[in-house]
């Protein structure tokens, strides 16, 4: 153990007190650092769909108050005496915690850790505390990033890791056609990673600003508000449809239509996004049987995916600059949530 030597005795953090109310509160800075821990000055945290979903009251099952925020990055300002692989000044982002002892961890599936404790509790407040000015973390849950990477861009490592994880479960190959439904932040990230793998990527989208965003990235786009998606996709693929459909939205109609947009035999549908309230779709087991369809769920990521995501961003293999809609200071977190929760927004970043 060693004494924490920070410039301040308190940590400021953003917290959702109830539906529609985000405030900044303070908690005492921990006094000591374990030998294998580091103290991090958090630089930025981006507002995820999960965060503003709870702010809107769509995820009230998670409870209030909630100190959310899990898309964050920061700079190490102090290290425990046994820390060797990190040093003061290193820029880092955060992976999910894992125990390293359970069976899933031992076979590399840290995302399925049976003893994982991502949620912290400080002075009765629970959450990830991503919107906090400081954080104490064990080094095995950290990923180094390029020092030249903007903090708000480095905060994309977590969502990008979930995309990498999801696409590791489908057979994206050179020359395959992938249809991404939805051109929001996660839809664009899925499209960018699929294109990195050599696939032809087509995006369908309803909202005009998102259509323009997808086009600016150089993707073929189907305007779902003006065109029949099934008919247009058939034209673009000579009637073969998509080898893989990635659902970047949690809408019932999109999920239902995905069965018509994927090829007749051996197609794959990746259910990347959840919807609230939970959508229900009619599905015949016979259709799965005779068409040999593969339906794949996607949630979270494991450690390998975080390293891959860090490499992609650090080496600038994709550009997330256009996905930052606006930047706010922590003191304006209520305004940040109000802005982020408006339809059609991309990521809003909170500087800490």
Automatic annotation (TrEMBL):
**InterPro entries attached to this UniProt entry:** ADH-like_C, ADH-like_N, ADH_Zn_CS, GroES-like_sf, NAD(P)-bd_dom_sf, Zn_alcohol_dh
Source species of the chain: Enterococcus pallens ATCC BAA-351
Keyword flag Oxidoreductase: yes
Query: Which SUPFAM superfamilies does the UniProt entry name for this protein?
Result: GroES-like (SSF50129), NAD(P)-binding Rossmann-fold domains (SSF51735)
Listed A to Z, the keywords are: Metal-binding, Oxidoreductase, Zinc
**Cofactors that this protein relies on:** Zn(2+)
* Pfam families assigned: ADH_N (PF08240), ADH_zinc_N (PF00107)
Q: Where is the Alcohol dehydrogenase-like N-terminal domain?
A: 35-145
Ranges for domain Alcohol dehydrogenase-like C-terminal come to 187-313
Please report which protein family the annotation says this sequence is part of: Belongs to the zinc-containing alcohol dehydrogenase family.
Its recorded name reads: Chlorophyll synthesis pathway protein BchC
Query: Which terms does the record give in the GO molecular function aspect?
Result: oxidoreductase activity; zinc ion binding
């Amino acid at each position: 153990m060693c004494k924490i030597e920070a410039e301040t005795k308190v940590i400021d953090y953003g917290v959702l007190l109830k539906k529609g109310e985000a405030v900044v509160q303070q908690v005492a800075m921990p006094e000591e650092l374990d030998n294998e821990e580091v103290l991090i000055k958090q630089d930025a945290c981006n507002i995820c769909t999960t965060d503003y979903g709870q702010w809107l009251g769509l995820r009230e099952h998670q409870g209030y108050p909630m100190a959310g925020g899990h898309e964050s990055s920061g700079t190490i300002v102090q290290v425990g005496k046994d820390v060797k692989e990190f040093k003061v000044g290193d820029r880092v982002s955060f992976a999910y915690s894992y125990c390293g002892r359970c069976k899933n961890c031992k076979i590399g599936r840290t995302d399925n850790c049976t003893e994982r404790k991502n949620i912290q509790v400080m002075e009765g407040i629970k959450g990830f505390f991503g919107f906090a000015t400081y954080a104490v973390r064990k080094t095995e849950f950290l990923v180094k990033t390029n020092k030249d990477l903007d903090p708000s861009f480095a905060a994309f490592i977590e969502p990008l890791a979930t995309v990498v994880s999801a696409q590791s479960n489908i057979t994206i190959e050179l020359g395959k056609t992938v249809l991404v439904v939805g051109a929001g932040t996660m839809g664009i990230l899925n499209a960018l990673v699929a294109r990195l793998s050599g696939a032809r990527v087509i995006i369908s989208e309803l909202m005009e600003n998102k259509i323009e965003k997808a086009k600016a990235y150089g993707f073929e786009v189907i305007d779902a508000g003006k065109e029949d998606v099934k008919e247009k996709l058939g034209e673009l693929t000579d009637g073969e449809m998509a080898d893989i459909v990635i659902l970047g939205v949690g809408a019932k109609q999109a999920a239902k239509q995905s069965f018509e947009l994927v090829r007749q035999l051996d197609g794959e549908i990746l259910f990347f996004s959840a919807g609230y309230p939970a959508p229900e779709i009619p599905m015949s087991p016979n259709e799965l049987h005779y068409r040999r369809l593969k339906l794949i769920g996607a949630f979270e990521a494991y450690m390998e995916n975080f390293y891959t995501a860090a490499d992609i961003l650090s080496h600038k293999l994709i550009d997330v600059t256009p996905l930052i809609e606006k930047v706010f200071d922590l003191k304006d977190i209520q305004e940040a949530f109000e802005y982020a929760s408006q339809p059609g927004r991309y990521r809003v970043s909170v500087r800490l």
